[in-house]
Specification:
Elements: H1 2-14, E1 16-17, H2 23-29, H3 34-45, H4 49-62, H5 66-89, H6 97-104, H7 107-139, H8 143-152, H9 166-180, H10 187-211, H11 221-229, H12 252-263, H13 271-277, H14 283-312, H15 323-330, H16 334-368, H17 387-403, H18 406-431, H19 437-454, H20 463-475, H21 484-510, H22 512-516, H23 520-541, H24 559-572, H25 577-601, E2 606-607
Antiparallel strand pairs: 1-2
Helix pairs in contact: 3-13, 3-14, 4-12, 4-14, 5-12, 5-13, 5-14, 5-18, 5-24, 6-7, 7-9, 7-16, 7-17, 7-18, 7-25, 9-16, 9-17, 10-14, 10-16, 15-16, 16-17, 18-21, 18-24, 18-25, 21-23, 21-24
Main location: membrane
Biased composition (Basic and acidic residues): 443-457
GO cellular component, one term: plasma membrane
């Protein structure tokens, strides 16, 4: 009986949600072309987060080399986006990675994905609210922050913010009330604020070329000491940032990688291209091309703004909370600084409303599926909005904005989104080599008949024959179409590959100099992990692929998904220990909810079979 319970528990973890095909959806989006998808991708990617992250990463982590950080983040997001495109193509009626994971990979993967997206949206909401509070405070001459700090700073623990940010809390609660009343981001509003974003970024690019100084990319210790001895308090309330080694790459290659990890989430808007482009004309060409073009455009914009910012202001003097208006003030353009501050306040409000809308809908979707508490799926009768999901997620984001430091929570944004997007290439590796459910049943009947035919034979294979059969099964392509056995091999090898790549990334992140300087222990371990990873990749490659491919396929399988997993995991290894500790607490809470409640109350309309190639 206990073995049967364990089997049922395992089947529950991989059970998949069943969906009806949606021809209506496909015909509705079939008119979209590459230009339409590029406009959608750029509009959803140019978030106000660029205003927040560019200065913080340049000041403390990467310096002017943040441009290279954006390049690494863009390439990594492109790899993940291609894998998401194939995963989304398997579920045409799906509008989110959470639902695609539920339909293709099963319940546990869906919960991990959705829980990390909730983390991303909650933290991003808190960060945008704090950024809005800092920008509004700068317009008042910092009187709000000075008053709150003077009153509450002595009562705040060291691991929390210097003062409770009641402005940020009030803003989040106000936006929560607006969403409960049924507010929506209409296409017209989206176009207006996308235009505002482009206007702001274009003006900053122009300002950098006019007022920038190339010497700010060649700073030395003498420049730093001169700035430290001068009056810098009018520019940055936090004083000077670290100098590092000066020059264009003051914090080395480690700083570039850590900056790329923090900037990764800025490119996560490519999901809209996958969701809208599934039924577009020639998706095999339009989806990857439009995704690459939109990510390239956003890279040019983000890197251009960062270049202009570090041109105008030395990277250690940038304001981590209100960078663009203060940069204009630094170069003597005070009127433009105030106009920029007002425009940014509006852009941040739009970004905040859109993020909170997504946050409440994700919470509602998981609660409606039973993975979170069912009470969170309660709908307001008068407005049709998920009132409990909106209230609870908004309250959590407001609490974080009230009490926590900006820099202590911002790293969690990218860590959560990186983990969610690492599931996508793993899913592609597994799903491409799975058989059709119908063919699996036929194979079971065939295997039973073969076993019954072999039973009269008394000959037993020797150890050499057994080893040969194992090698042939792993490396030799016995069948042209996948079987249950080959599908399990691909699944197990994909899990093993993730573990090997995680270990390799950990070694490269913790002891990079020892590895590349020829240290016998570290170099041997790294080479051994690399060889094992290559062998497991070849084993996956030798397995037969599914007979009915999706409308869009990832090219260069399995190399591209493996490369995507490695890059994402390596970027995750750049996070601090404190960030991983916070993420561990969040994950522990999530798994406690899932195993204590969700696994017993999830939807019954599921398929208990393991992941298959088609939904």
């Amino acid at each position: 009986m206990r073995c049967q319970d364990v089997l049922q528990f395992g089947q529950k973890l991989v059970c998949r949600q069943l969906l009806e095909p949606a021809e209506e959806y496909e015909s509705h989006v079939a008119h979209l072309n590459i230009l339409d998808l590029v406009v959608l991708g750029v509009g959803s990617t140019l978030w106000a987060g660029a205003y927040i992250m560019a200065s913080a990463v340049a000041m403390h982590i990467a310096g002017p080399a943040i441009i290279i950080s954006f390049l690494v983040a863009a390439l990594s997001s492109l790899l993940s986006g291609l894998c998401y495109a194939e995963l989304g193509a398997r579920v045409p009626s799906s509008s989110s990675l959470y639902l695609s994971s539920y339909v293709t990979m099963g319940q546990l993967f869906a919960f991990i994905t959705g829980w990390n997206f909730i983390l991303f949206s909650v933290i991003y909401t808190a960060c945008v609210a704090k950024a809005w509070s800092y920008a509004f405070d700068s317009l008042t001459g910092n009187h709000i922050s000075q008053g709150l700090q003077g009153t509450f700073s002595v009562h705040m623990p060291y691991f929390l913010a210097a003062y409770p940010d009641f402005v940020a809390l009030g803003l989040v609660l106000l936006m929560t009330g607006v969403l409960i009343l049924g507010a929506r981001v209409t296409p017209l509003v989206a176009k207006v604020f996308t235009g505002l974003n482009l206007l702001v970024l274009g003006f900053i690019l122009l300002s950098g070329f006019i007022k920038g100084d190339l010497h700010n990319w060649q700073l030395t210790e003498q420049d730093y000491n001169l700035a430290a001895s001068g009056p810098n308090g009018t520019y940055s309330s936090e004083g000077l940032g670290p100098l590092g080694s000066g020059g264009f790459v003051p914090f080395g290659f480690d700083g570039i990688l850590r900056g790329a990890a923090l900037c990764y989430y800025l490119f996560s808007g490519f999901a809209v291209i996958v969701n809208k482009g599934k039924g577009a004309r020639n998706p095999q060409r339009s989806i990857p091309l439009s995704m690459a073009i939109s990510i390239f455009i956003c890279f040019l914009v983000f890197s251009g703004v960062s270049a202009s910012l570090t041109f105008m202001v030395p990277y250690y003097q940038t304001d981590p909370y209100n960078p663009l208006p203060q940069a204009l003030l630094h170069v003597g353009w005070a009127p433009a600084s105030y106009v920029m501050a007002v425009v940014i306040l509006c852009a941040l409000l739009y970004s905040l409303l859109g993020t909170m809308f997504f946050m409440s809908r994700m919470t509602y979707a998981m609660a409606d599926d039973g993975l979170l508490f069912r009470e969170l799926a309660r709908i307001c009768a008068s407005t049709g909005t998920p009132i409990m999901a909106t209230t609870s997620s908004g309250s959590l984001a407001g609490l974080l904005a009230l009490l926590f430091k900006f820099h202590d929570i911002v790293e969690l944004i990218s860590l959560g989104i990186l983990l969610a997007y690492t599931i996508m290439p793993f899913s592609v590796l597994v799903l491409r080599y799975q058989p059709d459910p119908n063919s699996s049943k036929n194979e079971n009947t065939k295997n039973k008949s073969e076993i019954s035919e072999r039973e009269p034979s008394s000959s037993k294979p020797g150890p050499e024959a057994g080893t040969s059969n194992v090698l042939k099964l792993l490396w030799g392509r016995v069948n042209t179409s996948p079987t249950q056995k080959s599908g399990r091999i691909a699944y197990g090898c994909a899990l093993l590959l993730v573990l090997l790549l995680t270990a390799l990334s950990l070694v490269l992140a913790q002891w990079p100099r020892r590895v590349f300087s020829g240290d016998p222990v570290c170099t041997t371990v790294a080479v051994l992990l690399l060889v094992l990873s290559a062998g497991v990749t070849v084993t996956i490659w030798r397995q037969p692929q599914g007979p009915t491919p999706p409308p869009f396929k990832v090219p260069a399988l399995p190399v591209l998904p493996v490369l995507s997993i490695f890059v994402n995991v390596h970027l995750m290894m750049q996070m601090t220990t404190w960030t991983w500790a916070q993420f561990g607490i969040w994950s522990a809470i999530g798994f406690a909810i899932y195993f204590g409640y969700g696994i017993r109350h999830s939807l019954e309309d599921t398929d208990p079979q393991p992941p298959a190639s088609n939904s």
